[in-house]
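hey so i finally got around to running both of the ones u sent me last week. sorry it took forever, my laptop kept dying halfway thru and i had to restart like 3 times lol. anyway pasting them below in the order u listed, first the sequence line then the structure token line for each. didnt double check formatting much so if smth looks off just lmk and ill redo it

first one:
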Amino acid sequence: MGVHAIQPDGSLNAEMARGRMALHYQLYALEPLIMLAELGEDNGIDLYAEKEGAIHRLVNFDLAAMKNPSQIAKRTGEEQNITLPFSGLDIGWQSLTSNAFPTRISPR
């Protein structure tokens, strides 16, 4: 269900509805999806390919929003409540994705 909630642009409607905390919740929602995809890989299920690579779109959306939170602020109408630098709680998923897809996903 989580993968199917990812929109074509990589956003999650429920998370985008959280106003000032939208980016935080976008990042928060990503981690369990990455973990499930990794568990799926170990069991022959390719969740990364599900819904035409929706998890990749979510990762890319979130990385772009981390670089420029104003894109989410424009959609929510509210400046994002973030603390820099991002903590491991925000980006713990990144080490899994960069190991699995080193050329596709970059935090910088």
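and the second one:
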Amino acid sequence: MALREAELTETHNLIFESNSSHPCSTPNCPLRTPTGPAALAACHKVFGRIVGPSQLGTKVLQVPEFYEDREGELQCVGPGVCSTCVDRWDSGHAELRKKVWATLPDVFGLGG
């Protein structure tokens, strides 16, 4: 439960909060207007993709797939989101994984 809670909270901050505090500067990216409907739809899709449904357990230790192959062409899981934003999410999730891995001994009562 502790891992799932960390996953949901930290992933939410990564996807939604970082976009609000640092809007994208790429002209056609929906995250240029972080509170707009296109940006929120993209963020919800990416958030769901990373955390998945609760019955699957935590996925915070896995590397998320931010791109999927669609008929031989790689496309971002967030509709129309630029590669700069995807790269920011990717590096942020890498940091999140490091943080969670470091807390695993405490989660299982093995901290010393």
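quick thing i noticed on the 2nd:
Residues 23 and 106 are 35 Å apart (CA to CA).
anyway thats it, ttyl
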